[in-house]
Design a protein that fits this description.
Layout: H1 2-15, H2 24-46, E1 50-53, E2 80-84, E3 120-124, H3 134-140, E4 145-150, H4 152-166, E5 172-174, E6 182-186, E7 191-197, E8 202-208, H5 215-218, E9 223-232, H6 239-242, E10 245-248, E11 267-271, E12 274-275, H7 282-300, E13 306-310, H8 336-343, H9 353-365, E14 371-373, H10 376-380, H11 406-420
Parallel strand pairs: 4-7, 4-10, 9-11, 10-13, 13-14
Antiparallel strand pairs: 1-2, 2-3, 5-6, 6-7, 8-9, 11-12
Helix pairs in contact: 4-11, 7-9
């Protein structure tokens, strides 16, 4: 204690202006010099970085998440800039990860900007988004089950996470827990990550008119798809009671005329086993399904489980939709003005789906205990990050994402939100 007191007295003496070997003017000039040097080095450090910023216009939606569903009380990770930083990002996995679906492996498919895609870093305005640390993740979530439930865009995110973890842990067992499409357990940590495939969340299947007639038949319906808005699809019905952390999504299939032709094969909604009469359009069907599925998860989720609903992943078709000659050939993120042109609800353009779906999501989640994983706004800038012509399909893929790619940032966000919790 005596030694500490002596040091304290010495520090106090140093801070006493009477003991400084200079006058106040000298001190003032010294501070100015240090400040100037700091600004100079900061400018040099950032001189080779390109910034694509978000002013938040994309958040001008009718429905907002309530404070109870907010994902972070510390920082708003959704407002920020994409910074091109070729030397500042550590590659977390490469194109040799076997879990990457062929159509998303843009490096193996020789997409011209495949290596540049991961050199753009998302920088929130008022804080830093830590880059995903797979070792830390495995340790922090040992003895945990994590489930991704949704369409192929959630599989995109699932694959990113699995590939990141496989880079540092090769003791892996492949299995399908609770009806999942695919899953892995990292044995050393007893961490399971699984993907449950479901397009609508609600159960659906082909419907044909009954020769004995019925209310739908009397209205002239001959065939379509039966969607039971209050029944979860079997692929994920057991997921909430199995997983400790659940990430849900839906949206892309609800306005998909190539799947559900409004004339030849419309969506016909059922509740409690009976058709909804009069028949309703898909947007109202989505509202009914969301309300029922959210209630179902909250009812059966295991105690202490953490529930996320991921917002809509944006598409980037320009010059028409996927079946109308549309494409996505950009090699870097787009500007704020271009974002508004492509996604504004007022323009009602090809890619309006993202913000339209989010309106329905925010409304349904407003009074729930779900946390919102908001990836829409930051993803709207990344028109450069889709497989495009390298996807190997008959049409250009401007919906899914290259891997490695932007869904790595989604997992950065997921870990940041989990850490805040």
């Amino acid at each position: 204690m005596a030694s500490r007191d002596q040091n304290s007295k010495k520090n106090t003496n140093l801070l006493n202006p009477k003991n400084l070997p200079c006058n106040n003017s000298f001190l003032f000039l010294t501070l100015i010099c240090f400040g100037s040097l700091y600004l100079l080095f900061s400018a040099l450090k950032n001189s080779n970085k390109t910034i694509i910023s978000s002013t938040g216009k994309h958040e001008n939606l009718e429905f907002k998440p309530s404070s109870s569903s907010s994902t972070s009380s510390v920082c708003d990770y959704t407002k920020g800039s994409w910074i091109y930083d070729p030397n500042g990002i550590t590659k977390r996995y490469d194109n040799t990860c076997k879990e990457i679906f062929k159509g998303w492996n843009c490096i193996s498919s020789n997409k011209s900007n495949a290596y540049d895609i991961i050199k753009w870093r998302w920088q929130p305005n008022q804080c830093n988004l830590p880059q995903f640390d797979p070792v830390r993740f495995l340790k922090q979530f040992s003895n945990t089950n994590i489930g991704f439930v949704g369409d192929s865009l959630n599989r995109n995110m699932f694959v990113s996470l699995v590939c990141s973890l496989k880079q540092v842990s090769n003791e892996v067992k492949k299995w399908r827990p609770a009806g999942s499409d695919r899953g892995y357990t990292f044995l050393r940590y007893n961490l399971t990550v699984a993907y449950h495939r479901t397009n609508l969340l609600a159960r659906y299947g082909r419907w044909s008119a009954n020769e004995n007639g019925g209310v739908l038949e009397s209205l002239g319906y001959k065939e379509g798809f039966r969607v039971d808005v209050d029944v979860p699809e079997g692929t994920w019905a057991e997921a909430p009671s199995f997983h400790d952390i659940l990430i849900l999504n839906t949206g892309h299939w609800w306005w998909a005329p190539s799947k559900f032709d409004p004339i030849k094969s419309p969506m016909l909604f059922f509740e409690k086993g009976l058709p909804v009469i009069p028949p309703i359009l898909p947007d109202l069907g989505l509202d009914m399904a969301l309300n029922n599925m959210i209630s179902y998860v909250e009812r059966v989720m295991r105690p202490g489980g953490i529930k996320f609903f991921r917002t809509q992943s944006p598409r980037h078709f320009e010059g028409g939709d996927w079946d109308q000659g549309g494409s996505c050939q950009r090699s870097k993120p787009i500007s704020e003005d271009k974002v508004e042109e492509l996604f504004s609800l007022e323009n009602n353009g090809t890619n309006v789906e993202a913000r339209l779906v989010n309106q329905h999501l925010y409304r349904a989640l407003k009074t729930s205990s779900f946390r919102i994983l908001d990836i829409t706004g930051l993803s709207e800038f990344r028109a450069d990050a889709h497989p495009s012509y390298a996807g190997g399909k008959k049409h250009v893929d401007c919906m899914h994402w290259c891997l490695p790619g932007i869904t790595d940032t989604w997992n950065d966000l997921l870990l940041a939100y989990l850490s805040d919790i």
